[in-house]
Please model this.
Amino acid sequence: MVIINRVDGRYPLSPGQEGIARLFRDGLWDQVIDEIDGRRIRIGDRWLIDFASCNYLGLDLDPEVQAEIGAQVARWGTHPSWSRMLGSPRLYPLIEERMADLLGAPDVLVLPTISQIHLAVIPVLARGGAIFLDARAHRTIYDGCVYARGEGARLHRFPADDVGHLRELLAAAPPGQSKLVCVDGVNSMTGNGSDVAGFAAACRDHGALLYIDDAHGFGVIGERRPDETSPYGARGNAIVRHLGETYDNVVLVGGFSKAYSSMLAFVACQPEVKRLLKVAAPTYLYSGPVPTASLATVLAGLDVNAARGDAIRADLYRKTRRVLDHLRALGVATPNRTGFPLVLVPLADPEDLDRVGHALLDRGIYPTLAPYPGVPRSEVGFRIQVTAANTDEEIDSLLLTLDHVRGALRQSI
Model:
């Protein structure tokens, strides 16, 4: 058993945490980034190409977005220190109105982070009834479900994306109790979307509420239409619109911290759900707000999205396609079936993760390592996150590096 020394004692780790601790010790995680230059980052004296960022649209580096911060800070100060219960700068309702229009949602409530939303909103919506959780849903959704279980809800897990099994569980639930189904939109490791249409139909048939976390999909995938610039769709208005679904019996959660490079998150829902959350969700009642700079960059990002977002997504799809096509040419397996700019590359041997991680760094590539238990043992490897700010020359370097480590990668069957 691994022991970590701390000032105030010695703490044993569970077997699942040992692999993560090893990555810390080997200098593969928990890095301090000293400087950035576009999508190049400096750690100590080493410059690396960043393929670990989730700033998919590159708005963190967009001059138009950056330029909006100063004016709003001058108007509102650096931090509006009321909880939302007490007072909201006009920026909040303005964002909510624009988001409702973008998402085609009945109403929207914005709160600081998705993690806080899960912990606050899932217990409120569960109402002490039954929660049905997709086995591959993000860990933060699970944390919210555990919190709800502490308040009396019963938690049931079903196999990933298995609508049939979910229907069986819903049919067997005692009549009269509330039923909440929690799933991912776009999975944070595979880059694949869930069967939202199937889940929504099951929920409507059995009087359940479908709760979707589309942290990664929002800003990238959107509504399908004839003039779309890529298979991602148009407008980046998330998986509900991408799949042509409605918000009947559906609550959509998403955030701006990825595609929009801003600290803020949202709940898209019916107006009566929003009213309930305003009086029952601790995050709305008690949590501090986000900094003014984040609110400013959200609004500027929405402007950029309206003006040139689809062109940005077309370029992002092209760059991602280069990576996926190269992996296919090498015969390397990846679970990514959608072309989403989040590409998991599993290793042939999970024990090679440290060695491959160092090989990538040595060749100037900085990915997200994916150890167990963050992913199943069969998917241990590394995750490549392509962003619009990555240059074609940086993609070239990545492809050459994939050639170099090809022997350690899992091959397609």
Summary: DSSP finds 14 helices and 16 strands in the chain. Residues 31-61+308-408 form a domain with the Aspartate Aminotransferase, domain 1 fold (CATH 3.90.1150.10). The longest strand covers residues 179-184.
